[in-house]
Design goal:
alpha/beta, 12 helices, 11 strands
Length: 377
């Protein structure tokens, strides 16, 4: 058994002059304070990677910078799924008794510390070096292709996707740390600049600076701890050209595994934290997991089903689409918000009294999947 005993989250957006290590330190300090721990209490460290600081030993580099001496250190690279994969790894490290308090941390100055061309070149590695990269596709282009096929098969249209963007923005308006808080409507999404048909600017998450961290402990340390009840992964392909289908990507496999590990049913879940790099990402994941019928996620979003006061509150901080996306720390904001919701500390964003949360992240082009079930302590 393991417990998330503290979370730390910076605001996302522009942090001029702040480096990867600075943003990681900011978030780590907040998480330790929330858990009621000192740096000397940390004996495990797990971090991800940084495109603006591609160090071969980022975990031990950060340990030195932050002033901790862990007996266990690890770094993980799994694209957008990295944040939840790190939480799952920390959970397993705790259960193996290799550490007592594991600090999980990520941060990056991706907005102010990296040029557009550099980002495009780095992210191009997601494509197959022989069959995809030579064609010049970008990450939005890959998702645009998937969107076209998925929408054709299941009957979604661009308005359906727009409803998901509007929902995330409405949730972000209540969070002071969100990168974008100005309200939008469906027409604003549909009229925004085309990026990769059918995706438009407001169908895509922004690039951000920011940091996120949490402490995962062997023992319950305080009154606002959250139990990790189950976790699972699925990896059906790496390159989208090798995907078995363009409608079943592995999200159903990993979410089913996490629910089984937690010994709960999908119907028991009352809060959702689902990866949303693009509106089509969110639609596909919601529908493949079984949280919405195929082709109907946009309709449900429009109806209020996923709103704070709805049946299944979703990404109440605004998600990647509006809170922001700073690389590995992007999805970690989902977990930080889920922790606040489950402990009743989300202020005006509080969505009732949820007891069980389902988290899901994906990396690559819907390539790697990590699902988790969290329970209020």
């Amino acid at each position: 058994m393991s417990w998330i005993s503290g979370v730390g989250l910076t605001r996302y957006g522009k942090h001029p002059g702040r480096s990867t290590l600075d943003l990681m330190s900011d978030a780590a300090g907040l998480a330790l304070a929330d858990a009621g721990l000192e740096r000397s209490d940390v004996d495990g460290l797990i971090c991800g990677y940084s495109m603006t600081m591609p160090h071969l030993m980022l975990s031990t580099l950060f340990a030195e910078h932050f002033g901790i001496r862990p007996s266990y250190a690890h770094a993980i690279q799994l694209g957008g799924a990295t944040g939840f994969a790190m939480a799952m790894a920390a959970h397993l490290v705790i259960e193996s008794r290799a550490a007592r308090n594991v600090l999980v941390v990520a941060g990056e100055n991706r907005l102010t510390g990296q040029s557009r061309d550099s980002a495009i070149q780095t992210l191009a590695q997601v494509g197959h070096v022989d069959y995809e990269v030579p064609l010049g596709a970008t990450i939005p282009a890959y998702y645009g292709l998937v969107a076209s096929r998925y929408m054709y098969r299941y009957g979604l249209d661009e308005r359906d996707l727009a409803h998901l963007a509007v929902l995330m923005r409405s949730h972000a308006q209540a969070h002071p740390g969100a990168q974008f808080r100005t309200g939008i409507d469906v027409d604003a999404v549909l009229s925004s600049r085309p990026i990769a048909s059918p995706l438009k600017l407001l169908d895509c998450c922004p690039v951000s600076d920011g940091g996120a961290a949490f402490v995962i402990s062997r023992d319950p340390l305080n009154e606002h701890r959250v139990r990790i009840r189950g976790a699972a992964q699925a990896h059906t392909h790496q390159h989208v050209s090798a995907a078995p289908t363009l409608s079943e990507f592995g999200a159903g496999i990993s979410s089913t595994g996490a629910l089984q590990a937690a010994d709960v049913q999908l119907e028991d879940i009352d809060y959702l934290a689902i990866y949303d790099s693009f509106t089509i990402t969110l639609a596909i994941l919601l529908e493949e997991i079984g949280l919405a019928p195929r082709g109907q996620s946009g309709e449900l979003a429009c109806s209020g089903y996923f709103s704070r006061g709805g049946k299944l509150p979703l990404n109440t901080h605004g998600g990647l689409l509006s809170y922001g996306h700073c690389g590995v720390g992007g999805a970690m904001a989902h977990l930080a918000e889920a922790h606040l919701q489950l402990t009743g500390r989300a202020s005006e964003r509080q969505a009732g009294t949820p007891r069980l949360a389902l988290l899901h992240g994906d990396g690559g082009v819907l390539s790697s999947h990590v699902s988790m079930v969290l329970e209020a302590g």
